[in-house]
Design a protein that fits this description.
Length: 447
C-alpha cells in the first residue's frame, strides 16, 4: 500500500505528528502495537499525577495542626484507583484516541511494525511504502536489571503500580530516580511503609546535589526509608519479598516487604524495528538525529528513542520540528539548551539546562548562585525549598527551583536560559513580594 508518511509508534509525539500530517492533506498510516497515546496518558504522566495530587491533599491535611487548628484524615485509595480507571485511562481503552486519530484522516493499524527498507514498514504481512518517509516514535519499556532472583518474582514496574486497586502494607522501591521517588512518596502518604534503595550516592542523581538532599530529608521526615549508595545483590519472593542490599561500608542487610517496585530506568524500543534494513545499528542505545529530526534516508525519529529526554514535552517538541521538515515549512530547528524537567515530589523539583557540575566539566567562566530557602513566603507557609542558578559568563545555562510549585517557578528560568537573557537584565527586574519566585532574585545576587 502506497502512502505519503508512516508513523511507527503513536506516543504523544507520534500521535501529534500523524494528526498534523493528515490534517495537512497527506495520506498517513499510524502503527502501534499498544495503546494510542503511549505511556504518558495510561501509565505515566497523567495517572501518576492523579496519585500525587491525592497524596498531596493528604499531606496538606496533616499540616493543618501547625497552621490552622486540628484535622482528621481517613485515606481511601479506592477513590484514586477509580479516578485513574474512569477519568484518566477509560479503563485502559484507547478507543477515544483512535477515533480522534481517524477523524483527522489517519489510517490506524494495530500491530508490530518493522522497517523493511527506506520508507517501507511491514505489519502482519502487509507492507506500507511511504513516498516521503517514516517517523519513528516507538518509545521505551521499563528496564529490568540483571539482579539474581528478580525475574522469578511478581515485582511491579510503574505500569503495575498505576493499576493497583489495593495497597500493600509495605513496599521496597529499587531506584531513586524521578519515577521511584514520586511513587514512593505517594504510596507512603496513603499509609504504605516504604523504603527506597538507590545505587548512586544520592537520590535524584541527575539533579543538583542541594535539590537531592532537600528531597531526601523531606522523605525521611515523612518516615520513608532512604538508602543511598547501595546496590541490590539478590531478590527472592515467598511470603513477600526479601531484598538483599549492601555496600562496602555497611555490609549486607536484608529488607522485607509485601511488594517490590522496580524503578531503575527505561530502555529504548529500537532493537526489533528493522533498523538493519536501512543500514542503521539496531543495538545502538539511541536513534541519532540531526537538528531536523532526520535519522536516515526517508526517516525521522522523535521522542524517547532520540535520547534527548524521556519527556512528553520533548516528544511533542520534536514532532513539531519533524512535521515542519516533512512539509517543507522551515522554522526553528531542534535546540536542547533549555530542556526543562519536573519531578513532582513534595517539595517539587524543577530544573532546566545543565547542572553546576556539568557546566564546570564543559568549561567556561562558571558561577553558581543559591538561595537556600524561599524567602518570606516560604517562612509564612512553613515550606522548604531553594533556587539555584548556574551562569557561564553573563548568561544562565542552568537553574533549579525546589519547593511548592517548583515547576512553575521554573518557567521564568527556562525562558532566561533559552533566550540567553543577560544576568544583568535579570538582576534589574522587579520580583513580586512575597512570592516563592522572589528567591530567584536572591540566587542571582549570590552569583
Amino acid at each position: 500500500m502506497d502512502v505519503d508518511v508512516i508513523v511507527l509508534g503513536l506516543g504523544p509525539g507520534g500521535e501529534s505528528a500523524a494528526t498534523r500530517l493528515a490534517e495537512a492533506g497527506l495520506s498517513v498510516v499510524g502503527i502501534d502495537r499498544r495503546l494510542v497515546g503511549g505511556e504518558c496518558p495510561y501509565y505515566g504522566c497523567i495517572p501518576s499525577k492523579m496519585m500525587i495530587r491525592a497524596a498531596d491533599a493528604l499531606a496538606e491535611g496533616r499540616r493543618v495542626p501547625g497552621l490552622a487548628g486540628t484535622s482528621e484524615l481517613n485515606p481511601d485509595w479506592s477513590v484514586v484507583a477509580e479516578r485513574i480507571r474512569d477519568e484518566a485511562t477509560t479503563d485502559w481503552d484507547d478507543r477515544i484516541a483512535v477515533d480522534r486519530l481517524e477523524a483527522a484522516g489517519v489510517r490506524f493499524v494495530r500491530g508490530e511494525g518493522r522497517l523493511t527498507g527506506p520508507g517501507a514498514v511491514e505489519v502482519d504481512g502487509t507492507t506500507y511504502v511511504a513516498s516521503r518517509g517514516v517517523v519513528v516514535n516507538t518509545g521505551t519499556e521499563p528496564a529490568v536489571p540483571p539482579i539474581p532472583g528478580l525475574e522469578d518474582t511478581p515485582f511491579w514496574t510503574n505500569r503495575e503500580a498505576i493499576r493497583v486497586t489495593e495497597l500493600p502494607g509495605s513496599m521496597i522501591v529499587i531506584g531513586g530516580g524521578a519515577i521511584g521517588v514520586e511513587l514512593a512518596q505517594a504510596f507512603a502518604r496513603f499509609g504504605v511503609e516504604v523504603t527506597i534503595v538507590e545505587a548512586a550516592d544520592r537520590i535524584l542523581a541527575p539533579e543538583e546535589p542541594e535539590a537531592s538532599k532537600l528531597v531526601a530529608d523531606a522523605l525521611k521526615a515523612e518516615g520513608i526509608g532512604v538508602i543511598e549508595g547501595a546496590a541490590v545483590s539478590a531478590v527472592s519472593h515467598d511470603d513477600g519479598f526479601l531484598v538483599t542490599v549492601g555496600d562496602q561500608e555497611r555490609g549486607d542487610q536484608e529488607l522485607r516487604a509485601d511488594q517490590l517496585l522496580l524503578a531503575t530506568g527505561r530502555h529504548n524500543n529500537i532493537s526489533a524495528i528493522g533498523l538493519e534494513s536501512i543500514g542503521l545499528d539496531p543495538s545502538a542505545p539511541v536513534l541519532a538525529t540531526d537538528q531536523w529530526m532526520r535519522a536516515g534516508e526517508r526517516l525521522w525519529a522523535i521522542g524517547d528513542v532520540t535520547g534527548k529526554g524521556a519527556f512528553t514535552h520533548i516528544s511533542m517538541y520534536q514532532a513539531d520540528v519533524a512535521v515542519r521538515d516533512i512539509l517543507d515549512q522551515g522554522g526553528h530547528a531542534a535546540d536542547y539548551r533549555a530542556v526543562s524537567r519536573v519531578t513532582f515530589t513534595d517539595p517539587e523539583v524543577g530544573s532546566v539546562g545543565i547542572t553546576e557540575h556539568a557546566a564546570r566539566e564543559a568549561g567556561g567562566v562558571i558561577r553558581a548562585g543559591l538561595s537556600a530557602d524561599l524567602g518570606a513566603r516560604g517562612w509564612i507557609a512553613k515550606a522548604g525549598g531553594l533556587v539555584k542558578v548556574v551562569a557561564d559568563g553573563d548568561v544562565l545555562v542552568g537553574a533549579t527551583a525546589v519547593g511548592p510549585g517548583g515547576g512553575e517557578i521554573l518557567s521564568m528560568l527556562a525562558t532566561a536560559v533559552h533566550a540567553r537573557i543577560p544576568v544583568e537584565t535579570l538582576e534589574s527586574m522587579h520580583f513580586a513580594y512575597p512570592t516563592y519566585h522572589r528567591a530567584v532574585m536572591t540566587a542571582l545576587g549570590d552569583l
